[in-house]
Amino acid sequence: MKRDHRKSEKGIALVVSLLILLVLTVIGFVAISTTIFESNIAGNERVGTDAFYATEAIVEVAYNQLPDITEIPKTGTGDNNRLKVGGSSYGWTGTAQDKGNQKPIQYKGLHMMPGFDSSFSFGRYFIRAAGESSGASREIESMVSYGPTMAGTSSNN
Q: I want to staple 91 with a disulfide (CB 3.0 to 4.6 A). Which of 6, 58, 114, 155 is the partner?
């Protein structure tokens, strides 16, 4: 008695094609998951960059107002103040915890610079600024030398 092997292999094509379909489906789900994950990373990076730019804008405003050391209030898109940044980004002087209680620019005293005689002096200022955009926050600290001013005159308000 000879057996016909072809009759016992009738369903193998269906099983193999279902296995290949299963593998392709898993590859598709992995590709979709990876794409979603990468888009979330890109979105978070964009929000962080917006917060950094808001913080950098506050530092620039502070540079422009020296030697005035008054705080720069929380300023952003909806305000008609000095700073305009995109989206829901805003910034202020101080740390991220100082959002409702902005801090003034710190005056650190006078110093001399090479190449200037003793009749000139420079004011040293410490600027700490923070910014926020959609929940992401960034901080920048900057030490600035302002001058020259005539020695004996106050460069601090």
A: 58
Query: Phi/psi of residue 120, each to 5°?
Result: -120, 145
Q: How far apart are the first and last CA of the chain?
A: 111
Q: Which amino acid is at 118?
A: S
- H helices, E strands: number in the chain: 2, 5
pTM: 0.71
pLDDT tier for residue 78 given thresholds of 50, 70 and 90: very low
Which residues have a Cβ under 8 Å from the Cβ of 105 and sit 6 or more positions away? 62, 66, 69, 70, 71, 93, 125, 126, 127
CB contact at 8 A, 92 and 99: yes
Cβ atoms < 10 Å from Cβ of 95: 15
Beta bridge partners of 93: 129
Domain boundaries, the chain: 13-150
Residue 103, SS3 per DSSP: coil
Positive or negative torsion for Cα 34, 38, 39, 44: positive
